[in-house]
């Protein structure tokens, strides 16, 4: 699908399209760029309006993009060693760190 989208974009002198929508009989699919390395794929019932899906996808894309930027800025040394994780008590893992 990605190569076909690139081909269509070049036919109309676009560098790229930021989203692709395919409507099916039972389900539809919306693919939108989050950034140059990430796509958001939403599969939904065909009876649901694509406009509503796009509306909520925009909020999700902004949140995912922000989280990806935070992750990319993080130092590799600040990673989490899962081998020392106490499975019985994961409270520290899911606690929000102080800035």
Average pLDDT for all residues:
84
Biggest sheet strand line-up:
1-2-3
Tell me the span between the first and last alpha carbons: 41 Å
The count of DSSP E runs of length 2 or more, i.e. the number of strands, is: 3
CATH superfamily: Dynein light chain 2a, cytoplasmic
Helix content: 25-40%
CATH class: Alpha Beta
Major sheet description: 3 strands, antiparallel
Spans where pLDDT lies below 50 across 5 or more residues: none
Structural class computed from helices and strand pairing: alpha+beta
Q: Strand-residue fraction?
A: 15-25%
- How many separate domains? 1
Q: How do the SSEs run, as a string of H and E? A: HEEEH
CATH topology: Beta-Lactamase
SSE layout and pairings?
Blueprint: H1 2-11, E1 19-23, E2 27-35, E3 38-45, H2 50-73
Antiparallel strand pairs: 1-2, 2-3
Characterise the protein shown here.
The chain has 99 residues and is of the alpha+beta class. The chain has a single domain, classed as Beta-Lactamase (2-Layer Sandwich), CATH 3.30.450. The protein has a 3-stranded antiparallel β-sheet with strand order 1-2-3, covered by helices on one side. The longest helix has 24 residues. The chain starts with a helix and ends in a 26-residue tail after the last helix.
Descriptive keywords:
2 helices; alpha+beta; Beta-Lactamase; three-stranded antiparallel sheet; 99 residues
Question: In brief, what are we looking at here?
Answer:
By secondary structure, the chain is of the alpha+beta class. It has a single domain, classed as Dynein light chain 2a, cytoplasmic (Beta-Lactamase).
């Amino acid at each position: 699908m990605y190569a076909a989208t690139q081909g269509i974009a070049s036919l109309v002198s676009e560098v790229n399209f930021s989203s692709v929508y395919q409507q099916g009989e039972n389900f539809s699919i919306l693919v939108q760029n989050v950034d140059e390395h990430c796509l958001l794929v939403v599969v939904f019932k065909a009876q649901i309006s694509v406009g509503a899906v796009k509306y909520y996808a925009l909020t999700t894309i902004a949140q995912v993009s922000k989280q990806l930027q935070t992750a990319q800025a993080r130092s590799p040394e600040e990673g989490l060693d899962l081998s020392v994780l106490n499975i019985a008590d994961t409270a520290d893992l899911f606690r929000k760190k102080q800035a």
